[in-house]
TrEMBL record:
Protein's UniProt name: Uncharacterized protein
Record's keyword annotation contains Signal: yes
Keyword annotations: Signal
Signal peptide range: 1-20
Region (Disordered): 33-56
Organism, as annotated: Pelagicoccus enzymogenes
Superkingdom to which the source organism belongs: Bacteria
């Protein structure tokens, strides 16, 4: 290989490295010359007026706060959508940052502090229930603290820590202890009946009588949520006394809220000992539809009701309402009793007779009766003395409207009776030369209803309808002929 090209290559490499070194040195020198002096460092750099100074981005707002602010402007009645959403919000906020949630509520308008219980429940769910208890002791008066401790107990129940919830209940003041213990036992038994039962048996001797009663009541109530009949029978098998009374009442109360009919059949099938009587005296209005006679007797003979007529009237009104909703055909004697007592009260100037109800409620009761037993209700309506003619006719027409689809034959029969009544009433009205404007009787309306019934009926049985139309007296001959043509099937 010739030496000349190698010498040229080495010279080129040397020139490249020398040039690179000079460029780096020049850049360092330039950088050093442009560096600010100490005086320049202490003075603020000049900023053109048209460019605003830069600022750090604001921190994002607390999403809990934003949502709470928006919801507090809504309807906050218990059970409303806003109320339920806020409860869930503060429950979650309590689990995430209870101190911030409590600080927010302290600044909230009056009445909003009620959501503190939701925060406490979430606080307990986070596992730090001891700090939550300290908050209650520091911020809530002892006589008002029971529902706040109950929220903690519910939170501990949510995360399956029953022993700690019982320990918390037993650490409170004596007056609150029984109710809180019942709450803790109920939560535990809802998850593990056997474990809760073992705890009660092991600790019963160390509990006061009230605490024993409430513990068994909580156990019975939780059991009734799973098997109400079994729980009620178990409670009834306990030794006679207040413990059995309370346990049976707790189980039956849960049962009757879930299925009043089955609960009613069970309670009326039991021997009426003292426990059963006490349960019935408090729940007769809820199961009156099963055995109205016995239920109303219990309500009327309940000592608490005898001492408080307004309480009796309230229970009787609820019993009547329950009967009318679930067994309206069985309500006839009680509707008549309402009528008699209402008339007697009006004549004597009384305002709180036990069976006295408002006219609107009375009309509604008879209307429900007519919906279940038209014949009996219509017969009663002809003699009901505390109903206006307008109310009577409105009830009858309502029953006829319902019968158009269920029993058109009977609907036609009652329409014919209404026609007869209208004819008699009109004759009497003309004879007395008085107005009939207050009566809800219209011949044209009766004809219209009759025609609609006939047309609906003719779709399934035109021959029978034709037979009735040829013998009815509601429509005149021309109207009858037109209707007969209209209902004839098309032969093609």
């Amino acid at each position: 290989m010739p030496k000349f090209p190698l010498a040229v290559f080495c010279l080129a490499v040397f020139c490249f490295l020398a040039t690179r070194s000079m460029i780096v040195e020049d850049s360092r020198t330039l950088s050093h010359k442009n560096a600010p002096t100490k005086e320049a460092k202490t003075s603020a750099p000049s900023i053109p007026a048209e460019i605003p100074p830069s600022r750090p981005d604001p921190l994002p707002a607390n999403p809990f706060t934003q949502l709470a602010d928006s919801l507090f402007h809504g309807e906050l009645k218990k059970g409303s959508a806003a109320y339920e959403t806020l409860s869930s919000l503060f429950l979650e906020w309590g689990a995430a940052d209870p101190h911030a949630a409590m600080a927010y509520l302290e600044q909230a308008p009056k009445g909003k502090q009620r959501f503190a219980k939701a925060v406490l429940r979430g606080w307990a769910q986070s596992g730090d229930f001891l700090a939550a208890r300290v908050w209650i002791q520091s911020n809530i008066a002892p006589q008002l603290a029971t529902p706040f401790y109950a929220a903690l107990i519910d939170g501990l129940g949510d995360i399956d820590r029953p022993e700690e919830s019982i320990e918390l209940a037993l650490s409170t003041e004596a007056k609150a202890r029984p109710a809180l213990l019942q709450r803790a036992i109920e939560n535990w038994a809802s998850q593990d009946l056997a474990a809760a039962s073992r705890w009660i048996e092991a600790n019963e001797s160390s509990l006061s009588p009230r605490e024993q009663n409430r513990a068994l009541s909580g156990y019975a109530k939780a059991w009734a949520k799973k098997s109400p009949a079994t729980a009620s029978s178990w409670a009834q098998s306990l030794p006679p006394g207040r413990t059995r009374d309370n346990a049976l009442l707790a189980a039956f109360d849960e049962w009757v809220q879930r299925d009043a009919t089955k609960a009613g059949y069970w309670i009326f099938s039991q021997k009426p000992d003292e426990s059963i009587k006490k349960v019935l005296s408090q729940n007769a209005h809820l199961v009156a539809h099963v055995n109205p006679q016995v239920a109303f007797e219990f309500i009327e003979n309940d000592p608490a009701n005898e001492e408080d007529p307004y309480r009796m009237r309230g229970h009787l009104a609820m019993a009547l309402d329950n009967v009318m909703h679930k067994a309206p055909a069985a309500a006839a004697p009680y509707i008549k009793r309402v009528e008699a007592q209402t008339l007697a009260a009006a004549s004597e100037g009384l305002t709180h007779a036990p069976y006295q109800v408002s006219n609107q409620s009375y009309v509604e009761m008879v209307n429900r009766w007519a919906a279940s037993d038209e014949d009996a209700a219509f017969a009663y309506l002809d003699t009901a003395s505390n109903l206006s003619e307008a109310d009577r006719e409105a009830i009858k027409q309502g029953a006829i409207d319902r019968l158009q689809t269920t029993d058109p034959d009977k609907a036609a029969y009652y329409l014919y009776k209404r026609w007869q009544d209208a004819d008699q009433v009109n004759a009497l009205q003309f004879a007395a030369s008085t107005t009939k404007d207050h009566l809800d009787i219209s011949v044209s309306n009766i004809k219209s209803h009759y025609q609609s019934i006939a047309q609906a009926w003719a779709k399934s049985d035109p021959e029978t309808v034709g037979y009735y139309l040829e013998r009815q007296e509601i429509l005149d001959p021309e109207e009858t002929a037109e209707l007969l043509v209209a209902i004839q099937p098309f032969d093609g």
